[in-house]
Each structure stands twice: as C-alpha cells, then as structure tokens.
Amino acid sequence: MLCGLRVLVTGGAGYVGSHVALRLLEAGAEVVVLDDLSTGHPWAVLGAPLVVADVGDRKRLRALLQSGRFDALVHLAARIWVGESVRDPDGYYLANAARAFLLFGEAARAGVRCVVHSSTAAVYGEPADGPLDEEAPLLPINPYGASKMMAERALADIARAHGQRYAILRYFNVAGADPEARIGEATPNNTHLIKVALEAALGLRPELAIHGTDYPTPDGTCIRDYIHVEDLAAAHVLALRALAEGERRLVLNCGYGRGFSVREVVDMVERVTGRRLPVVEGPRRAGDPAVLVAACQRIRDRLGWRPRFDDLAVIVATAWRWEQRLQARFGRRRRTR
Ligand code: UD1
C-alpha cells in the first residue's frame, strides 16, 4: 500500500506513535522513528530504527532530514495532558506549537512532500450541541487544545507556501492496545480514564476518582468518544496513502460518533476485569468539556476508513490484556520509571 515510501514518525516510541509506526511498516513504508523518550519507550519501537533526539533540536533535525530523504512526515510527538497544560501553559506552547513550527518548516525545506499531523478534539473547545464536524469553530478551552490549534494553522500555511500535501487528524479519546498486546499505553503518571481505571483494577492505585458528577449529561458525568488505537493507526496509513496518491488537504475527525459517560466506562471496566473498582466521586477537573463526540462521516467518505474495533468492550479488553502484561513485565517499577 505504501511500498518504499520513506516516512519519518516523530513520537513513534509513544503510545499512539508506536501503533502508527507498526502499521506503516506493515503497509510497506520505510519508517524511521524520532523520539526524545521523554514519555516513550525504546521497546515500543518494533522493527524501525529509532533516533533519540528532540524535535526542537534544529541541528540534529536538519541532519536527519537531509540524510533521510523522507517522502513523508507523520508528526505525533507532543505533550497531551489537559490538566497539566492548564498548570504549565508555556511548556505546552513550546512543545506543541513552537516545536511543530520548527519541524514543519525544516521538513518543507528538506523537500518532504506529505505531512500527517496528529491533532485533537480539544481544538474544538466546548461544543454547542450534537456531534462535532470538522467545520465547527475552533475555540479551545485549554492550553493543550490551543497549542494544537496553532500547530494546525502553521502546517496549513507552511504547506501552502511549499506546495506540500497534508492531513490533520483530530483524535477523540484514544484507548485500547495492540490486539497481540505487544505494545500499548505505558506513559508514567497517566491520567486517562481507561488507563487509570485498569491500574486501579490491578491495585496500582488506591482509588479511581470520577472528576465531576454535576455535568449536564444524563448521569452527570462527562461523555467522550473512545476510539481504538488500532483504528486510529489505520487512519494514518490511509491518510498517507491518499496524500501519496495526490490528495492535497485533509482535515478529519477520528472517532466513532458515539459517546460513553465516565460511569459507563467504569461499569465496562468492572465487567471486563471482573473486579470492583475503588470509585470515589470528586470535583470537576479544570479544562474538561461536558460532551465531546465526533461527527465522523468525512473520514469514511474521504479515506474509505472502516473501523474494526468499534466496541467499548473490545477497547477495554485489549487495554486490560496489555495492562496485565505490562504489570507482569515491569511490576511496580513502571509507576516511577
Ligand atoms: C483529552 C483531550 C483529547 C485528547 C486527550 C489526549 C479534551 C477535552 N480532550 O482527553 O482531545 O486526545 O486528552 O490526552 O481536551 N476522568 C475521570 N477520572 C480520571 C480520569 C478521567 O473522571 O481519573 C474523566 C475526565 O474528567 C473526562 C473523561 O474521564 O471527563 C476522559 O478523560 P481523559 O481520559 O483524561 O481524556 P480527555 O481529557 O477527555
């Protein structure tokens, strides 16, 4: 599908990036991973060379781009925690916006023709009503979303100036793991709901706090559109193929178009693991919108994308299998690295 295409994947040692790199390799691409290992792991890079460097290190980046003669860039390296971004906004603007400006500019000047950029539903902010389509206004309500919005805008301008083709993929809530449990989410001090719930099921956390029970939703907890990381990785492969075949610009939501509340997710985790979770009800978390659900027709129409894991039970089951393997492999050490 992508035979011989030379692709640089930033953040390819991370959770989503490692799945994307693997799928690109399986599709026939020649992949090089660039990752500073700030949150990623060398063992997560399966079958591709890993260059350990910071995306913001212009000198090393330039040398890599020149020697690599890449056809495409897939940019996933980023900081992704909403709560942390509220506490450390300048850190997020530097990591997600400033570094992306630098990377996109250098890649364009090095002759990289296609760029796939990982963005987020957080660029939309607090949506009015109903599922969000790609034409919805971008009104982020936290620095994480704002920094990603800036990167989107910079890519559009840089790509136009240099005649590049690009795809922006706006992820909704990514979860699940490789069905063979070779790779999965292993970021330390993770705050994602399903990850936290599974760690609580394993006894690695004393409790699972529900962040807010007074939202204007049927059960009072936030609703999110959870997408399996394998379906998301497949979307990257299809987006890159479309660009390689001549598509100039794609902006696509990556979600299933169906939301689950925090309580529904907690129930599913209890069902899949067969364990009762130590749930406590807490206050709202800063920066959290009540409902975020994708309108996802465009990605189906434009890429022919058909999800294979559109089932919360499967998402939780693959994540659970991975979590148990991670526990068996690293035990408690993994909480502190
Ligand atoms: C956020 C972004 C999303 C991005 C992702 C990457 C927003 C609105 N969403 O997802 O676009 O791709 O980060 O990291 O900015 N929760 C609890 N208890 C917990 C953990 C979470 O109740 O211990 C709740 C949260 O309040 C939220 C839901 O579960 O309502 C999902 O949270 P989380 O898994 O952290 O993802 P988002 O913050 O929605």
Structural class: alpha/beta
Query: Which compounds are bound in this model?
Result: uridine-diphosphate-N-acetylglucosamine
Main pleated-sheet profile: 7 strands, parallel
Give the distance, in angstroms, between the N- and C-terminal Cα atoms: 37 Å
Low-confidence stretches: none
Shape: globular
Report the portion of residues in β strands.
15-25%
Radius of gyration: 19 Å
Order of SSEs, N→C? Answer: EHEEHEHHEHEEHEEEHEEHEEHH
Strand segment tally: 14
CATH architecture of the largest domain: 3-Layer(aba) Sandwich
Number of domains: 2
Per CATH, what is the topology of the largest domain?
Rossmann fold
Question: What is the CATH level 1 assignment of the largest domain?
Answer: Alpha Beta
Task: Give the strand line-up of the largest sheet.
Answer: 3-2-1-4-5-6-11
- Kindly state the mean pLDDT as a whole number? 95
Question: How would you describe what is shown here?
Answer:
- With about 325 residues, the chain is α/β, with parallel strands linked by helices.
- It has 2 domains: about 5-175 and about 225-255, Rossmann fold (3-Layer(aba) Sandwich), CATH 3.40.50; about 195-225 and about 255-330, UDP-galactose 4-epimerase, domain 1 (Alpha-Beta Complex), CATH 3.90.25.10.
- It has helices spanning about 15-25, 60-70, 80-85, 90-110, 145-160, 195-200, 230-245, 260-275, 295-305, 310-330, and strands at about 5-10, 30-35, 50, 70-75, 115-120, 165-170, 175, 210, 225, 225-230, 250-255, 260, 280, 290.
- The longest helix is centred in the N-terminal third of the chain and has 21 residues, at about 90-110.
- The mean pLDDT is about 95.
- The structure holds uridine-diphosphate-N-acetylglucosamine.
- Uridine-diphosphate-N-acetylglucosamine (UD1) binds near residues 80, 173, 288, 289 and 292.
